[in-house]
Amino acid sequence: MAVSEVQFAEWVQQYYPAVYRRCFYLLGDADEADDAAQETFLRAYLARERYDPTRALRPWLLTIATRHCLDRLRRRNRRPTIRWDDGQAPYAVPARAEDTLLKDEEHARVRREVAALPPMERTLVILHYWENLPYEAIAVQTGLSVHAVKSRLYRARQRLARILEES
Amino acid sequence: MAIRNTEALSHLEKRLRAARPRDVEPPPGYTQRVQSRITAHLRRTWWLSLTLSAALTILAVLGLALWWSLGGPQFAPMRAFAAAIHALLWLMERLPWLEGVLLVAWASAVFQALGAGWWLRRYCRRRPCIRSFPRTQSHLQPQEVRQ
Questions:
Q1: A75 and A3, same structural domain?
Q2: Hey, are the CB atoms on A41 and B13 less than 8 Å from each other?
Q3: Shortest Cα distance from A50 to chain B (angstroms)?
Q4: Would the CB atoms of A25 and B24 count as touching at under 8 Å?
Q5: What are the chain A neighbours of B46 within 8 Å (beta carbons)?
Q6: Same domain as A67, residue A5
Q7: What's the whole-number mean pLDDT along residues B76-87?
Q8: Residue A11: CATH number of its domain
Q9: Can you give the pLDDT at residue A157?
C-alpha cells in the first residue's frame, strides 16, 4: 500500500502519544522514550509499504515500539536507571494531587522492582498490568506464544511477590 | 516464596496496577522531530550509497590502471596456472610414485566428502533444529509427521 507523506504525518499526529507512552513505560526514561518513539516511526516509515491496511494501525505501531524497546533493554548491561518519579528527568511525571507521600513511595518501590525484572518479564508485566492488554495481544506484540506469555507472567509475579515481601 | 492464595495474588495485582505512572505525555514538537529524523536518515543513506558507488568506481579505475600497467590485453593470468600444471607434470615424470600418492589423496577426499554428507544427513534427521538442512517428509516416522 502506498502511504503518502500527508497520511504518514497524520499517523504521527494521532499515534505518537500512545507509542511514546509505551516506550516510557518500558524504558522508564523520558529522553530515551522520546528517542525510541522517533525510531519506531522511522522504522514504520521505512516499512510502510509492507503495512496491511486491513489490519489496525495502532497495534502494528505498538508492536514495532515494543520490540524496539525490548532490544534496547537487552542491550543495557547495567541495572536500568529509574527516572519515573525522581523529579530529575526533564519530563518526569509530576506527582498527582490526590497521591499522598506514602502512596508515592509505595508506587516508586513497586516500579523499581518491576524495572529490575529481566527485560521480557518486565515487558510482560507492564503490558498486562499497566496497558491492560489480553494475553493474545501481548503474544503478538512480543513474538511469544500465549502459553509462554502466561508462564513467564506467572514467574514474574512469583519473583515480584518474593521481592516485595522481603523489602 | 510462591503466591499461595488468590487474595495475595489479587493484592499484588492491585499494587502493580496502582503503580502505573499517570499523565505520561510526550514533549511538544514531536511531529517535527520525527520528520527531521526521517530526513536525516534518508540523507545519510543517500550519502552512504553515493560514497559506496564512488569508492567502487575508484577501485574499478585503479584495477583497470593496474591491468593496463601489467601489459593490458597481453596480460594473461592463465599463464601462471598453466605453468603450475606444467611443473606438476614435470615432477610426476621424475617421481613415478607421486602419481599413486595423488590418486590416493583424490580418492580419500571423495570418500570423506561422501561420508560427511551421509553423517550430516543422519544428524539432521535427529536434530531438526538445524534449519539450513531442511528435512523432507519422506523419511519421517508417522508420529513425527503428525507433530
A1: yes
A2: no
A3: 17
A4: yes
A5: none
A6: yes
A7: 76
A8: 1.10.1740.10
A9: 92
Cβ atoms < 10 Å from Cβ of A80 = 17
Question: Which has more confidence, A44 or B3?
Answer: A44
Q: What does the pLDDT average to over B56-84?
A: 79
Any CB–CB contact under 8 A between B4 and chain A?
no
Q: What is the ipTM of this complex?
A: 0.78
Amino acid identity of A146? V
Does residue A48 lie within any of the structural domains? yes
CB spacing of A111 vs B21 below 8 angstroms: yes
Closest-CA residue of A relative to B30 is A16
DSSP B91-136: HHHH-THHHHHHHHHHHHHHHHHHHHHHHHHHHHHH-TT-TTSPPP
Contact A107, B17 (CB under 8 A): no
Q: Which residues of A touch B18 (CB under 8 A)?
A: 106-107, 110
pTM, two decimals, is 0.67
CA A101, A102, A107, A109 torsion: positive or negative? positive
Chain A: give the shortest CA distance to residue B120, in Å: 31
